[in-house]
Specification:
Layout lengths: L7 E7 L7 H12 L3 E7 L5 H10 L5 E3 L13
């Protein structure tokens, strides 16, 4: 995978996420389709969800999946 100024970032937030297969699956699909996207897993410690959402917005992510334990907690932080 090559990351450059045009790479669109997507990802996953939760805790823990180190075991997730999502980055490998998504990045393989992006590569196969010739898309300049990168999918990263981001562990968000308890209490860090509001700052994580702010960071995702500030970095102009093009999508983000949310997994346990934040599936419901993230709802009030969304547009």
């Amino acid at each position: 995978m090559s990351i450059n100024a045009g790479t669109k970032i997507t990802g996953l937030i939760g805790y823990p996420v180190e075991h997730s297969l999502s980055p490998d699956m998504h990045n393989a699909a992006f590569d196969h389709l010739g898309l300049n996207y990168c999918y990263i897993a981001m562990p968000v410690n308890p209490g860090g969800l509001p700052d994580a959402v702010k960071g995702i917005r500030a970095l102009n992510f093009h999508g983000c999946n949310v997994t346990v334990p934040y599936k419901q907690d993230v709802i009030p932080l969304l547009d």
